[in-house]
């Protein structure tokens, strides 16, 4: 079960294809099971969350997708419009200042403005309240873009603070950056696979987040972990038994090849897990490789028990 019920903002990121949305969905289900009201905010993504939660397609409007879980697939231009309206608190003033071709061209030309619009919208949802003054959402989960784009998105508030003159935009960026650095408020969940390249990218991303941006790492989730079948000695013996260049002549050879391939994968997995444990600031958590479809409500609920 998720250990993040005391956080207000979770940022889920990692290399593309490692299962970020799967982990975001599992965290949302785990938190909702504890009675938390959770919003999952996606960044103009190819929408898969609805399949995982068995809901209608998630669009640009915040909608309830399961008990205690809401979701939105943020569009940069729509998010910028919402940000302008929230800042100016006047549709008339917004139309004068923002809703014209010159302003739209200017904002499209500003580096990072689209990223800030989505990041700022996700952060703003942590400030929303209901009629009784309680938070509309207890936890907002940002399903951030993959490693490089995700890091660029998280750099934007600092860039704004460094280059933008004092005003509303810089004020909001300063406030957001302060909260992202507060471990009581925010945590990053890094998602990876037990493979060499995702492991390297995860370690580099963790260093950039902590050393460059000062954003705390709350959890590292290693997705798709295989249960080991062989000892270290057995793996070495299988790898020596038959080389990739040898021809498979019979069923026995085929079995040895299958065992060798599994042994190689286990060796790479063991090395990756050891490196992640050694070089990251938090101990990794593991999610098993599901041999059935992991993008089903049943699979997500099973993973939610382990995040």
TrEMBL record:
It comes from the Bacteria. Its EC number is 7.3.2.7. Residues 8-160, 173-227 form the ArsA/GET3 Anion-transporting ATPase-like domain. It holds the Pfam family ArsA_ATPase. It catalyses: arsenite(in) + ATP + H2O = arsenite(out) + ADP + phosphate + H(+). InterPro entries: ArsA/GET3_ATPase-like, ATPase_ArsA/GET3, P-loop_NTPase. It is an enzyme of class 7 (translocase). PANTHER family: ARSENICAL PUMP-DRIVING ATPASE ARSENITE-TRANSLOCATING ATPASE, ATPASE GET3. Belongs to the arsA ATPase family. This is arsenite-transporting ATPase.
């Amino acid at each position: 079960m998720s250990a993040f019920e005391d956080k207000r903002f979770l940022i889920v990121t990692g290399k593309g294809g490692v299962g970020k949305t799967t982990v975001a969905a599992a965290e949302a289900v785990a938190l909702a099971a504890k009675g938390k009201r959770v919003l999952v905010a996606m960044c103009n993504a190819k929408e898969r969350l609805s399949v995982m939660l068995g809901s209608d397609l998630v669009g640009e409007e915040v909608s309830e997708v399961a008990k205690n879980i809401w979701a939105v697939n943020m569009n940069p231009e729509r998010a910028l419009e919402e940000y302008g309206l929230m800042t100016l608190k006047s549709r008339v003033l917004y139309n004068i200042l923002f809703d014209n071709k010159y302003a739209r061209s200017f904002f499209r030309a500003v580096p990072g403005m689209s990223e800030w619009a989505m990041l700022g919208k996700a952060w703003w949802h942590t400030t929303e309240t209901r009629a009784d003054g309680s938070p509309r959402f207890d936890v907002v989960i940002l399903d951030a873009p993959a490693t490089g784009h995700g890091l660029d998105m998280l750099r934007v508030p600092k860039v704004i603070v460094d280059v933008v003159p004092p005003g509303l935009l810089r004020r909001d960026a300063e406030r957001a950056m302060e909260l992202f650095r507060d471990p009581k408020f925010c945590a990053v969940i890094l998602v990876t696979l037990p493979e060499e390249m995702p492991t390297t990218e995860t370690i580099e991303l963790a260093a950039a987040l902590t050393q460059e941006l000062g954003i705390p790492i709350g959890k590292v989730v290693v997705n798709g972990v295989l249960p080991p079948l062989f000892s270290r000695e057995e793996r070495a013996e299988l790898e020596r038994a038959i080389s990739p260049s040898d021809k498979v002549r019979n069923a026995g050879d085929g079995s040895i090849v299958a065992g060798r391939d599994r042994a190689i994968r286990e060796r790479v997995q063991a090395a990756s897990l050891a490196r992640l444990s050694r070089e990251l600031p938090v101990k990794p958590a593991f999610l098993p490789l599901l041999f059935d479809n992991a993008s089903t409500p049943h699979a997500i609920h099973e993973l939610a028990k382990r995040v």
